[in-house]
Amino acid sequence: MANFLLQSWNRIVALFRREKLDRELNAEMESHLAMATEENIRRGMSPEQARRRALLDFGGVQQAREMQRTSRGMPLLDILAQDLRFALRQGVKAPRFTLAAIATLALGIGLQTAVYSVVHAVLIDPYPYRGAMRIVHLHLYDKDPVPFDLALNGPQYEQFRKSPVLDASMAEDRWSMALTGEQLPLQVQADRISPDAFENFFGVPALLGREFVSADGTQVAILSYHFWKSHYTGRADVLGKVLQLDHRDYTILGVLPQRFAWGGSDIYVPLTYSSDPQRIANVYARVRMGVSDQAAERMLDPILHRFARETPGHFPLEFHVHLVHINEIAIGRFRGVLIILFLSVSLLLALACVNVAILLLARGEARQAEMGLRQALGAARMRIMTQLLTESTLLSGLGGVAGVLVALGCIRLVRHYLVAMPSLFPPEAEIALNQPVLIFSLAISILTGILSGLWPALRASRVSLRQSADSGSQHLAGRHGLWRSHSILLTVQVTITVLLLACSGATLRKLEQLIHTSLGYDPHHLIAVNITLSEGDHHNWAERVHYYEEIRQTVAADPGVASAAIAFANLPPSILDSAPVSVPGSAVTGGNVVPARVGRNYFSTLRIPLLSGRTWTEDEIVHAAHLAVINDTMKQLYWPHADPIGQTVALNNGVAHGNVWLLVSPGGDERYQVIGVVGNSPNQGLDEQVAPSVYVPYTMVAFDWFNLTLRTQGDTAGLLHRIREQVHKIDARQAVGDVVTAENMLEGDSLGRERFVTSLFTAFALVGLFFAASGLYCVQSYLVAQRTRELGVRIALGAPRSHIIRLVTQSSFAAVLAGTAIGLALTVALSGIFAAWTTGNARDPVILTAEVLLLFASAALASIIPARLAAMIAPMEALRVE
Amino acid sequence: MVLQTLAAMGEQHGYGIARRIEQVSGNEVLLNQGTIYASLVRLQQRGWIEADWGTSDNNRKAKFYSITKRGRKQLAEDAAYWQRLSAVISRMLAMQQDGRE
Fold first, then answer.
1. Which of A53, A253, A420, A857 is the most buried (most CB within 10 A)?
2. What does the pLDDT look like over A256-301, one tens digit per residue?
3. Do A67 and B46 touch (CB under 8 A)?
């Protein structure tokens, strides 16, 4: 041990006294040789012979010196420093190569890190809540594809929460309330949640003040960050203040952090279950750790069926319970896109690695003569390998650092996008460069360096002196083994690029389709304003209808409003639920249709064309006449050859009996006579086929909310304020929601998301194309440089330029062709999988042709410069090369 | 070998050590003389030998190496170990011959 320490110490000391020690060593060796020479002379040799003999006995002076140094100092550190210096010099000497390699890696690693960060933040860990991955909605399914959300009354909830498979649970009643006590009542979304929800269910500490607990009673409120900022301008003195909801006072206890956005509500207040078994609230649960979803469903099913026997009105007829994790709901169909995004960015990283390998390999080959010289001068194989490895690791390290910068930039870009489109990801998701991802990507960058450095290093270190000194012959023949590896790498690159192009093409195609989707209505100057009643207000069907009509007429009289209509539905292309229908006497008698409850001017306000028949009169609406208008899809499906006017349809959507909130018209059954057919407008989102739809008078079932749909004209500034004032005059307690414009909705919800996805994929494809082109360019240039002498001889012997160009491009051309063929085959083979994730079509022949043409064009561009260089070789210069 | 040479001959320079080893081994160990310097620096760093500049017989400046106390101890240990080992090996070889007969 003491030995080892002493030796190590001496070695470290030696590091810092290198020059002195070297001088001493030289002097020592010189005296050694001098003594040997003298002795030889004494033995009768001539002075020259004596010196020669002494040198021979001594062996390689340089090797001996090197061995002594190795034993003396810290050889690894020494070598590393040496190699690093050399690598830096090499990098500066070949700036194009260095920049190309670093940029390639930076793009690959940077994009990978950024996308992985987003996927992590959105898919893997989006929510701040305690045990968020185990928080579930409970969906009840019967035969209908649209599930019921589980809702329980007080006593049922008390039993439910004791279930052994649940860790915690929460009951929630989310509804609009009027923020009163200010000049005009303001409609806010209030979330009444179980009093213990914050401490037992969410577990997210408050940003300011504290959250309510069971002991706080009922008249306390917590603000969401968003509402605190918008309504109270982020003032810290809101704590302890009183706010009024529906004329009742609540004390503000705290403000939630920004990431707490449960339900997107403005205000959270404690929920008090009344003993009334009709009062129900939605229920959420966190499944106990280690309990599978299936096991939890099996345990909960009997309890819920018992509840269903107690209060049959709150449950579907025959159902099973299905747990849906909260982030599944938030991500929805976007999950598939994110997975494809992640796969393509991984492909891109692979592409970057291949590119770096091509670059390093080509360079390793170009430096064969150098390697040969080193070996001749006595460099060990390991020594050459470590040097090459140092170079490539340094390159990839720099690439990794640059990659982190690229990633930070990309994340900033995504954040910027999110500000414009808050609906893209769940509001709780916090997109940030997270550390595990950073470490992962840096590890990948180092690994890339080692892997892509090792291969050329192995090749280069095998070069024999004769081979490299005799380099003329290789230049003539071209080396087939090397060519094979280059061709394989090129083929792989082109294949990956075709796949990326296919992804991008599919999303582009989808975006194009969406943009050109016929909306069937005119979204310009079209807005909707939500008006929600305070609980229990206007609790009589006729009075409620009268109240709604009065608001509509008053608002319609505003000079900024061209026409106004009432609807119990959001503007198209919102997805509307469907309900079973029966159509006696038509070819197809059953199926599902979308029931839409609208008022008289609905079609003229939206400018949906009336194709045949008529729409309702004022009187028919007010008296809830059993008359229906159907859309064109419904006509084509049920009466393809007959006239639907006068036919009967029966809706079975299960609200015929009404409840506390839904007031059913007197004598309501659900049989309607068709009086008109209108044009289609999307009712399942922009990217889905229009579903058959039946429009019925909204008065059939008077909900306790409605959307006032307005076609505006002229100056609309101050319109919302005027509407609020008018409504205030009719009912001083009535709050009015915010304005939603149809154009914003189209952009934000449907087109915006597609545009985001398309621009991402297109960026990837272009970067991929750039990688493939630069790889091709590099291989071509290298080839031309290697064969300069041969090509010069050929030109001197009279080979036409076209022949030369063909000669240098043919093998790369073959590689590009092969890569394209494999890529296309893979695209077609994988398109089934793509289809499961997105609705974009990756097989569209037009798009595929365009992709291939684009690829060929860039391949041609990448080979033109080296090929022209080859064709312009001046024979005399070529022969003088080296 | 270096330690033994130094122990037997006292202070010696690199060339002297190399020649001595060649002579003693009856030229059976024919190393490049240059390799001696790597061994010398190792031994020096372990503290088994020390070095000092001096003047040789024919008035030439040279670095002279001499064995230290630690070096002698180490030499004794190594020699004992080596003798044990070679004794074992010889016995083994003898046994093998017996087996063949």
1. A253
2. 998 888 888 899 999 988 777 778 888 999 999 988 989 999 999 9
3. no
Out of A6, A24, A58, closest to residue B32 by CB: A58
- Give yes or no for B4 touching A (CB within 8 A): no
- Radius of gyration of the CA atoms of chain A, in A: 38
Contacts of B48 in chain A (CB under 8 A): none
Q: In this structure, what token pair is assigned to residue A349?
A: 């990283």
Distances (CA, A) of A80 to A14, A97, A762, A818: 16, 22, 42, 42
Query: Pick from A307, A394, A348, A372: which is nearest to A91 by CA?
Result: A394
Instruction: Tell me which residue has tokens 């031309």.
Output: A784
| Rounded CA separation A849/A851 (Å) | 5
Please name which of A395, A407, A386, A387 lies closest in space to residue A360, comparing C-alpha atoms: A395
Does the ipTM surpass 0.90? no
Contacts of A31 in chain B (CB under 8 A): 13, 15, 56, 60-63
Confidence of residue A477 (pLDDT cuts 50, 70, 90): very low
Region of residue A308 (phi > 0: left; psi between -120 and 50: alpha; otherwise: beta): alpha
Contact A34 B47 (CB under 8 A): no
DSSP A736: B
* Beta partners for residue A189, in sequence order: A176
Q: Which helix (H) or strand (E) holds A123?
A: none
- Express as a percent the part of chain A with pLDDT over 70: 86
Between A442 and A693, whose confidence is greater? A693
Instruction: Give the predicted TM-score (pTM) of the model.
Output: 0.63
Phi, psi of A323 (to 5 degrees): -85, 130
Nearest to A757 by CA among A333, A346, A328: A333
Per residue in A107-161, pLDDT tens? 888 887 887 787 777 766 778 888 888 899 888 887 766 677 888 888 899 899 8
The label of the residue with tokens 């020390």 reads B50
Contact A591, A581 (CB under 8 A): yes
Q: Is A690 helix (H, G, I), strand (E, B) or coil?
A: coil
Residues A815 and A776: their CA atoms lie apart, in Å, by 10
Strand A135-141 to strand A320-325: parallel, antiparallel, or no bridges (unpaired)?
A: antiparallel
| Backbone phi and psi for residue A255, each to the nearest 5 degrees, phi listed first | -125, 135
Residues of chain B positioned with their CB less than 8 A from the CB of A3: 46-47
Question: What single DSSP character describes residue A258?
Answer: T
